[in-house]
Amino acid sequence: MEEELMGGEREVTQALVRRLLEERRSLRERLLRLQKIDTAPAIRDTPEAHIKSVDMLDMAADSLRNDLQWTTREKFLARVAQLDRAYRKLMHGSYGVCEGCGTDIPAKRLEAMPDAAYCLPCQEEQEGLRSHRRLTG
Questions:
Q1: Is the pTM of this model over 0.70?
Q2: What CATH number is given to the structural domain containing 95?
């Protein structure tokens, strides 16, 4: 009976490892695609385009595109870091333990968000603290 439980836990662990690594790989691929978009030469960079005056709307659109790419890249990098952290915790046996209160994170939360570091009450507290810091500067 104990061997069956251990085998079941091992299967769950292996499935989690696969899921974490697959999501990390997917994010890395998306980051590479973003990098290719970011380094692709713009049409306006051709010599003919420099002769023409640059339209303010084009400059604003470029700025918005760059801001969006930067924000997306930062979010992807943060997510990769979260997945790496969850993977390390899984390998060290501390996976699924809330970093705020030390209780077990519910399985449903981990299924929905395998890199969750906090139980829901602690997560809400963390988000409230971050929101309060933004508002108070």
A1: no
A2: 1.20.120.910
